[in-house]
Amino acid sequence: MKKIEIFLARKWFDLIASGKKTSEYRRVKPFWTARLKDAKPGDEITFRRGYSHVIMPRRLVGVSIVEGWRLPEAEREFFGPCNDIKFYKVDFK
Fold first, then answer.
1. Secondary structure letter of residue 38 according to DSSP
2. What is the CA radius of gyration of the chain?
3. DSSP 69
């Protein structure tokens, strides 16, 4: 079983903790490609609030690639103009 650790700002961490956010987005870059290439449903994801010791474990549902124009509004605001950029969509429960 693969373990994936994702660091989050408080805003995103709190949305996941409340159950309002069930997907996390990362730009398709070598760093994330290496970490997500062998990920399978059921693998463990540990979300960390910044660089603190506050963590939240979840289970991976799936990883897909989406175009920037398909991102939810809040993520588009965060990433800025990104229509031509590809992102990993990491679904979890």
1. T
2. 13
3. G
